[in-house]
Write a structure and sequence with these properties.
The structure is a single chain. It is built from six helices and two strands. The longest helix is centred in the last third of the chain and has 38 residues. The mean pLDDT is about 85. Strands 1-2 form a two-stranded antiparallel ribbon. About 15% of the residues are buried. The chain is mainly α. It starts with a helix and ends with a strand.
Length: about 180
């Protein structure tokens, strides 16, 4: 009987309790439609697809035009390196074949062993440039995708980073000067 009365009284009080519903006391949550439309405007998947189709197009989609010279400068630089090493590879490979085919060293200034080393080095550097080009391609895709995600990121205005000079005096080490980085969250 005591359990029934206790359960009934708890349910009665729990159902009879109500919060204040006065309109002047309620807090208004800011309209989130702007954030939602802002997030829809910069779709990370779309930025990723654009960057995959044409390098740099994802950065244009995210309105980060200053990254275009970096993207195309990287591609041009690595492409130039690839072209340089490919030409050297073909040149010295041809010389190596002519030295091997004639069995005389009059066709080249280098010996057969030197030419093999040169050809191997040019091939290795050419392959490394191909890997760097592929890495540059993937990096610009990831950059466009992450940048589209971070468009809606809210930065805390109280976050401060300062670089300031420091001077410390210690009994064991003596006086020391330098710079310190101060982070304030």
């Amino acid at each position: 009987m005591k359990k029934t009365v206790l359960t009934f009284s708890i349910l009665f009080f729990a159902l009879s309790v109500s919060a204040q519903l006065s309109p002047e006391k309620t807090t208004v949550i800011p309209d989130t439609t702007e954030l939602k439309s802002y997030a829809v405007r910069y779709d990370p998947r779309k930025a990723l697809m654009y960057a995959a189709i044409l390098p740099g197009l994802g950065q244009v989609y995210n309105k980060k035009y200053w990254k275009l010279p970096l993207v195309y400068g990287g591609f041009i630089g690595f492409g130039y390196g690839l072209n340089f090493y490919q030409k050297g590879f073909k040149k010295y490979k041809g010389e190596l074949f002519s030295v091997i085919g004639t069995n005389s060293h009059s066709a080249s200034d280098f010996t057969e062993d030197q030419l093999r080393t040169i050809v191997d080095r040019y091939r290795r550097e050419r392959d490394f440039m191909i890997i760097l080009l592929a890495g540059m391609y993937l990096l610009q895709i990831v950059d466009a995708h992450v940048d589209a995600h971070l468009k809606e990121f809210d930065l805390n205005p109280n976050l401060h980073v300062r670089l300031q000079p420091t001077m410390e005096s210690d009994v064991l080490t003596g006086r020391s000067t330098g710079f310190s980085i101060k982070l304030r969250f």
